[in-house]
Amino acid sequence: MPSLDAQIETFPLTRHFTISRGTKTNTVVVVATVHEGDVVGRGECGPNARYGETPETVAADICAMAPAVNDGISRDDLQAAMPPGAARNALDCALWDFEARMAGMPAWRCAGIAAPQPVVTAFTLSADGPEQMAREAAANAERPLLKLKLTADDDLMRVRAVRAVAPDACLIVDANEAWDVASYMAAVPELQSLGVVLIEQPLPADDDAALARLSRPIPVCADEAFRDLSSLPALVGKYDLVNIKLDKTGGLTAARAAVTGARAAGFGIMVGCMVGTSLAMAPAMLIAQEAAFVDLDGPMLLARDRVPGLLVDGSVLRLPASGLWGEGF
DSSP character for 302? Predict the structure, then answer.
């Protein structure tokens, strides 16, 4: 019978990472491990205070599922047994990994999809002063897609500074709920002239009704406003894409359902991540195959990653042949 445990781990970042809600210099993740004999399945999640999560509460929620795992709970039954969020993500992905290894086939084959191909990820520039962001952008100017974290202070100056040193990169801007309607209306015309291709979560998720009546010449993507499949009806008419993160949906199983539902409702797909290691990104690579925008650069922001980790060539991500997750890629 399989057993379950959870471990809290800390990974330092290469430099501070700032968004509109704060700054951090390391990332704390929780790893769920399902094991039976020599077979071990792992899944990683990134607890997020935005959703009331801490590493300790998430680890406790995972460990509380040990009797159900011991009884052989299925991934489908897990969806009803736990709410969406980081804890269910780690356990769901651990079960995918465990089942793939028990079956002796890669997770993508278990899912009934084609082998995952390399994807191009956005590279995130932490919110900082215009000069500092320009310096970081200049060092990454050859990347095809840069994502700029904004805070509602000097945002246009930041974007202008980045565009000046990275003229060929496509730009995404992400306000993480920091703007109001006036900020949005003032920014959009110039962002359009600066070649911004996507705006992520400009308004607070609980105060975004204005997006239904505002012009959206640049597509707007729901991040904090989108959690899982149940979020979609409230977003129709306000957003053009949804950012699917496994830590929000509660795992790969729910993320796959969210992709199907989002497409049926007319939304484009972005796949994103919390700052985490390659173990968290590997299952998201299956979702990335269907995404218009991929933002899985979490491991690229770390001072050290897991070994083996994703294979990184500039902004191109590939899954390793074995040893990370979903054995047998």
Answer: B
Q: Which domain covers residue 265, as residue numbers?
A: 119-318
Question: What pTM was computed for the model?
Answer: 0.96
Over the stretch 142-161, which tens digit does the pLDDT of each residue have? 999 999 999 999 999 999 99
Show which residues are catalytic: 149, 245
Q: Do residue 205 and residue 295 come from a single domain?
A: yes
Structure tokens belonging to residue 90:
């780690």
The residue assigned the tokens 């970042």 is 13
Report the chain's C-alpha Rg in angstroms. 19
Report residue 22 as tokens: 């704060």
- Arithmetic mean of pLDDT, 248-253: 98
CATH number, domain containing residue 82: 3.30.390.10
Cα–Cα distance for residue pair 129/139, rounded to 1 Å: 16
As a whole number of angstroms, the distance between CA 140 and CA 298 comes to 16
Q: How far apart, in whole angstroms, are the C-alpha atoms of residue 11 and residue 292?
A: 29
Helices (H), 43-143: 55-63, 66-70, 75-81, 86-103, 107-110, 130-139
- Residue 151 corresponds to which tokens in the numbers above? 């805070």
Task: Specify if 327 maps to a domain.
Answer: no
Q: Amino acid identity of 184?
A: Y
Provide the token pair at 289: 């195959």
